[in-house]
Amino acid sequence: MTHTYPAKTPRTPLAFVVNLIRGALIGMAELVPGISGGTVALVVGIYERALNAGNQLMKRQFRAVDWPFLIAVGVGMVTAVFTLSTVLHDFVENSPEYARGLFLGMVIVSIWVPVAMMDPRDVRRRGVMLIPLFLVAAVVGFLATGFTSTPQTDPSLIVIFFAASIAVCALVMPGISGSFLLLAMGLYTPIMGSLSNREWDVILTFMAGALLGVALFIKGLTWALTKHRSITLTVMAGLMLGSLRALWPWQDDNAGLLAPGDNALAVFGMTLIGAAVVAAFIVADRVSTARRDSEVVAESQPA
């Protein structure tokens, strides 16, 4: 099944600001273990547009790239990473239960996003295959997010380069947290520290590795979404469900799951807030899409 990507972003100040905020939200997500930047891109309604722009860059189709959109999202991401790395790192480190509770609610609701992107007719035809595939992906995500590693104190730049090329795949693939992959490799703490301290040799090495990872991964995922859309989205949804394990608020130092503590009411309150924020994004995107579609239909009608 072929898919038509969304039209280019309107070149208005409001569109730029909206995409700037979307990029900032994605950048914030990439700083937090357990939540995927790709998931947030899905939630705020720019996932396929961003994937398409990245694919055009890889193919050197520079005139076709939606540059106002790409620049706004990129500036928002970079700004969030550099300005909020210390704040979010402190929030996750000092209030882990409240942080995970907030992100748990966000990801629970966002599972609906890839499901809603599927063609219902294709889902009905392939349901016998898609349901087991969803469950397998959920189990894989659950098991994968159970691994952690002792933080490395002074990783080499070569290690950081290749770790970045792996972790950045989470920016493209919803359900996989790049920061959690770094945590599993024992590199989350030193890299976050380098961001906070502006250690440019580490930062530039990480960026170079990330570019390599995106270049290798993005073409394959674009092909999968175009040729096997329902299967790809099913795997995404399953991984997102399985990744909820990493966001259970009460865990020990080895990512073992614990029973709710005395602060359960406050933590689950944060979960409801996170769910409400994402639900608001989804509803706003649906309303905007419906309005845009109705305008297109109206313009196509003869006068």
From TrEMBL:
Keyword check for Transmembrane helix: yes
Transmembrane segments: 20-47, 67-92, 98-116, 128-149, 155-173, 202-218, 264-284
Domain of life: Bacteria
Keywords, alphabetical: Membrane, Transmembrane, Transmembrane helix
Protein name per the record: DUF368 domain-containing protein
Organism of origin: Corynebacterium suedekumii
